[in-house]
Specification:
Protein name: Large ribosomal subunit protein uL15
CATH architecture of the domain at 92-162: Ribosomal Protein L15, Chain: K, domain 2
Region (Disordered): 1-75
Strand content: 15-25%
Shape: elongated
Organism: Parafrankia irregularis
CATH class of the domain at 92-162: Alpha Beta
Order of helices and strands: EEHEHEHEEEHE
Number of strands: 8
CATH topology of the domain at 92-162: Ribosomal Protein L15, Chain: K, domain 2
Biased composition (Basic and acidic residues): 1-10
Strand order of the largest sheet: 3-5-7
Biased composition (Basic residues): 23-40
Length: 165
């Protein structure tokens, strides 16, 4: 758009151009930047008849839900249902039975988490709980994160001791 100018005469009589500036009502979009909205389904003259939906089929007719899978078993019915409750904040332990401790340490002595990891009974960097399945006949001093009641009784009855970390 051409800039409009006014000629201004100063006191000496010389003419000097002066810019009027750009106003909001001068602004126009670039030619071809705006197109009219295509009105579909309004007669044979322009995008009438099928209105860009192709011919026949469920998608050419009325509204079809996005979740519809053409008669196939729907996803919400294929996925198995959630059963029960699983606590996200539970503490999981690696478990060791007293019978396993007796197998791994037949001479007795001090048994801690590090010794159990070295023997291959539990994984490293995990909490260990001693359970009371089986029998123990040697005196062991066991150190672990948790003990069941029967495990404490069996270890102490065999002459050992339990220490909770």
């Amino acid at each position: 758009m051409a800039e409009q100018t006014l000629e201004k005469a100063d006191s000496a009589g010389a003419q000097e151009p002066r810019a009027l500036g750009l106003k909001v009502h001068h602004l126009r979009p670039a030619p071809g930047a705006h197109k009219k909205k295509q009105r579909v389904g309004r007669g044979e003259g322009s995008k009438g008849k099928t209105a860009g939906r192709g011919t026949k089929g469920s998608k050419a007719r009325k509204q079809v839900p996005a979740r519809f899978e053409g008669g196939q078993m729907p996803l919400h019915m294929r996925v198995p249902k959630l059963k029960g409750f699983r606590n996200r904040f539970r503490t999981e332990y690696q478990v060791v039975n007293v019978a396993t401790i007796e197998e791994l340490f037949p001479e007795g002595g001090t048994v801690g988490v590090d010794e159990l990891v070295a023997a291959g009974a539990v994984r490293s960097k995990s909490l260990v709980k001693v359970l009371g399945d089986g029998e123990i006949g040697v005196a062991v001093q066991v150190t672990a994160h948790a003990f069941s009641g029967s495990a404490k009784q069996k270890i102490e009855a065999a002459g050992g001791s339990v220490t909770q970390v």
